[in-house]
Design a protein that fits this description.
There is one protein chain. By secondary structure, the protein is an all-alpha fold. The protein contains three helices and no strands.
Length: 117
């Protein structure tokens, strides 16, 4: 009888304990900050809307959307697998970069508006 040359497929690597909880905490902290900043900057701070403010707002909307997507991914059972977890981290980093760009533009807009006024 011929022996089977097929090797058993090893189970996928899973993230160590605590990693998922850490990323979920990081996402929710950044999401909370983003929403609080959005509320203050978009609704409560004085000033007029202009092109810079619109670009900043679009970056902030993109950041919040990416944070929600990252949180959704992090809460899935499939995120235990290392490859899925890494993809979730990349989405989260993209959201942080979009937030950084939006905050920078908002800061420049406020500084230029104060200087012009």
């Amino acid at each position: 009888m011929a022996e089977s040359t097929e090797r058993p497929v090893p189970p996928p690597a899973v993230v160590p304990a605590g990693y998922r909880q850490g990323i979920i905490t990081a996402i929710t902290v950044l999401l909370g900050f983003s929403l609080a900043f959005w509320r203050f900057w978009g609704f409560e701070s004085p000033g007029r809307w202009n092109v810079r403010a619109l670009v900043a707002a679009l970056c902030l909307v993109a950041a919040v959307a990416l944070q929600i997507l990252s949180l959704f991914r992090a809460l899935r059972i499939e995120d235990e697998v290392v490859s899925e977890y890494r993809r979730t981290v990349r989405w989260f980093i993209a959201s942080a970069l979009a937030l950084l760009v939006g905050l920078t533009i908002a800061m420049l807009d406020a500084a230029l508006a104060e200087h012009a006024g």
